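Page 47, continued from p. 46.
Same chain as before, 398 aa.
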Amino acid sequence: MTKKRTTRKSSRGSKPQKAPPRSNTHPRPSIEPEDGAGIAALPDEIENAPLEVLEEEIPHLEHFWQNVMRAAGCEPHSPDAIRGASGVPHRLISAGIDEPGHRLVIISGEPDARSAALAQSDIQAAMSRDLRVLVARPILMSAQDLALGIARTTGRSRLSLKDLETFGSRPEEERNQLGEALAPQLQPLMETVAQWIRNAQSLQSFRLLEVVQQILEQIVRIHWITPDGPGADLTDLFAGDPAIEDIPLGTCGFPLFAFSGDEMETVNSGTDLDEIRRLLRKHNVFQYFFPPPDQLALGLVERQPQDETAIVRQLEQSARLGHPHAVNELLGEDVQLVDLIDALKERKFLVGGEVSLELTPEGESVRHTIRYTPREGTVSKILNRFNVSLDVSKLLKP
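Result:
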């Protein structure tokens, strides 16, 4: 039986709107239907095909993104698209406005990190100067986890066609025995993949082609030639965290794939915002929106060693970019920004070098657990802004 598709209607008309003018107020985002967006060469029923892979009954978690917005301190909205300064509509999954904090938080419908970052810049250019746009992009699967699971099951990081031919040449009884032996090890991996699909399918936010594009973006790191000939070398996927493309662009790769079924239900229920914030911290998402200053300082020192004055100046810039500080994670809550570097030195996370601060082995150990997580987008955002300012100032010199 064919399911009837439902479409979301916008309260605005279909006539294109101009980008909102700059002003001293904080205008509401220009929310419009996504007329003409997408891949024009494909029929609508293919381009916008919903993600429906599992045949099991999967409940619609329609409040998930709204509650993520509330946990991030925003009033949730449900637009289909928003036009930037270029006039191009950018597909949105959700959005939230934090009026006191002068922030617009967006869950982008773009399938790749670069497109999401470009959308952020375009939308930011259409807003007033003191309204900051933050973008998160849902990541639906992890090729890294998949590759590690395959390696654990097979005991190999490289699989060649010769291996398959060797397996196929074995007697049927031997092949069946090997299959039965591998089944218990494959089961957890298959359940993990099934949970990724449940998470994505339950939100009804993703188009089939966008999911395929995300998969291709991650598996492109596979080498299809091995020392034994044609095959798949998974080695580069082991260190390829799914958010690795988002981090240097200053956006947040939201690890939807990492949420369990119970966690998805908890967020969707919205009954306990503190618990939702705890889950977002667990997955290193909350710290993107509200970075702990002590961890942020270590990240800035690791990525671009500088003196104490420069680090403090960059920490102060965080709130102006739309990322107000949370409480410290490593130091006491009462440690002020002016005393932060000295406190990190006393705890032996930092040491003063000849010309700049450096991480100690203890600081390196702390950074090792979080340097490739979604929270790191904030570090890049600050450094990108700081470095652009330096480059422009050099260009303007006579």
